[in-house]
Amino acid sequence: MPASPSPAEVRELLAFAVGLATAAGEQTLRYYGHRVDHTPKSDGSPVTIADREAEALVRERITDRYPEHGILGEEFGEANPGARVRWILDPIDGTRSFMRGVPLYGVLIGVEVDGVSAIGVAHFPPLRETVAAGLGQGCTWNGKPCHVSPLARLDEALILTTDLRAVAGDPGWTALQARADTVRGWGDCYGHALVATGRAEVMVDPLMHSWDSAPFHPIVSEAGGRFTTREGVETIHGTSAVSTNGVLHREVLELLRS
Q: Which of the residues 25, 61, 88, 109 could staple to 125 if both were Cys, CB 3.0 to 4.6 A apart?
């Protein structure tokens, strides 16, 4: 097993990551609330000039400060593969929300150190919210400690997902939502942040990439919850994701497998 990064290294990287996410968020706000042209990517998802400019800004600042580090970004791919420290970037998670002026999009930054998911930052520029965590350092919401909800009953829980079309007809999702108190679609990255800050109990994402998941394993874990794939694997490199307050995780996964 790889060694965990030192607390001092985690604190240094976390502080830098929060600054990067804030700067990238300000870059996106130059375009937010206006009509923004987009082009479709190979998977059909849109990309805008704001996505590209925000990622370019973050990549430049990382390279200037840590030229030996690796970078994996949604828009510009991988640089310096095999580096001990790898930054994983999603400059705008929720581009469709961003394009429509919905404030629930986020700038996502995760950092792996020796293969360990060590840093997570999710910054929501229009809301001026930042959820951030470092391995062994806890999770903060706008600089103050935050924790997952203590609710232990699914019939009292708020559960979330991103796109109802992606779960339509899924027997597991049907079983899960039937047991929940409230079901909403506050999706993309904001749903996972709501779990980490105790405002929701469950977030289910049936389709994920590494840059979507990268910040949320440390964020949700350090807030006292659990972040896994639908199959229960703790990884940021899965193709699905489930965030919960921890106490409900086993029951949620069992229902999703039904």
A: 25
